[in-house]
Amino acid sequence: MSIEEYAAGFTEEPGYLDYGRVGPIASVAAEETLALTQVLARARHGSLDVMREQDARVRDAAAALLGLPSEQIVAQPNTTQGLMHAMFGLTGGVLLSAGEFPSLPIAAVRAREALHAITPVWLETDHGKVTPARIREQLDPSVKAVAVSLVDSRTGYLCDLEGIRQVIGDRLLIVDAIQGFGVVDAPWALADVVATGGQKWCRAGWGTGVLALSERALDRLTPVFSGFTGTEEDEPWGEVPPPASSSRAFRVTNPDPIAEARFAVVLEQLARVGVPQVNAAVTERVSRVIELADEFAIAVASSRDEHERAGIVVLEPLAEQATTLSASLHNHGVTATSRQGRVRLSVHAGTTEETLGMLRDALVSYSTAASY
To answer: At what angle do helices 353-370 and 322-331 cross, to 10 degrees?
Structure first.
């Protein structure tokens, strides 16, 4: 599948630069949703069997991208629930930054408060970056796991999973992958826990996600809130069997098969086009956004290094001009995220010339207004 064919599945209006918040649903996901919704609505004899097939389908599709056996993957409704499973299942210290997206630190603190089995160890970062060097400096024998975002949602920084794995040894490496999964060809096998959702860069809509666990993670994590579908039995009537020995143990209940189908179809499409090809298209568009920022003398707070970035560009105007920049983007139909005096622009392989032109027009207006 060519990158042009893949980009043709982007149906959002021009001006959309906010995939870091949510990716408008892909055309293949919308079609899959409609097809299975019609199956469920009619419920003809035997037709509902297709619903049961979607769990294996989404695990197989995720396995193909992650390079892991499907038995080590379990469907989740979102990234946060996967991270909660991991944090509540840990024992010992977990090293992480308090500046991560709230899903990680809140999960760690809630697990400590509820079970008193883990201890969050707050990492002093390198100006917001979680780097191997800073992790090495702050490791001690009490730390049994390290948790990190693959791509930082505020800075766009792409972490060095290989470097982190080298310095932490056989400690568990927990990765919140939501801001890079689908556009970053990461060395997933180095992680012990990969939690991600499909509503951002994969464009599969809300309610989609997976949790991938290494053999080491399956051995060390306790499936604390394992539900009735998390056993080896389909329906354990009259008994309470132990959790399954596989990733299935981290199920709470039956997943939404239509959500699984949405996620599966976009992952299958990604496998056909290839994540490296998507990443190359994203990288080119990120470079062009940075060039536009430079043209209008707007500071770029995110990394310019292609090895330290994914699809996010963070602009940091002068404090007194932040509102002007946000207003200019809004007035020119550019959708972005404004937060704490910064503007986050997130591009994708389907970002068009028209959209980049709208961004340029917005920056022209901003520059004119800021000069007065």
So the answer is: 140
- Angle separating helix axes 54-66 and 257-273, nearest 10 degrees: 30
pLDDT for 368: 82
By C-alpha distance, which of 282, 301, 311, 306 is closest to 343? 301
| Residue-wise pLDDT tens digits, 46-88 | 778 899 999 999 999 999 999 999 999 999 999 999 999 999 9
Does this model's pTM top 0.85? yes
With a cut of 50, which residues of the chain have pLDDT below it? none
Strand partners, 194: 175, 212
Name, in order, each residue with C-beta under 8 angstroms of 54's C-beta and a sequence gap of 6 or more: 36, 255, 257, 258, 260, 261, 264
Do 52 and 257 form a contact (C-beta atoms < 8 A)?
Answer: yes
Distance in angstroms (rounded) separating the CA atoms of residues 30 and 203: 10
* Per-residue confidence (pLDDT) for residue 43, from 0 to 100: 84
Question: What is the rounded CA–CA span in Å between residue 3 and residue 262?
Answer: 20
Give the residues across from 176 on adjacent strands: 149, 195
Q: What is the pLDDT of residue 370?
A: 64
366, two tokens: 């901003």
Identify which of 167, 97, 176 has the alpha carbon closest to the alpha carbon of residue 133. 167
Q: Give the gyration radius of the chain's Cα atoms.
A: 21
For residue 372, the model assigns a pLDDT of 62
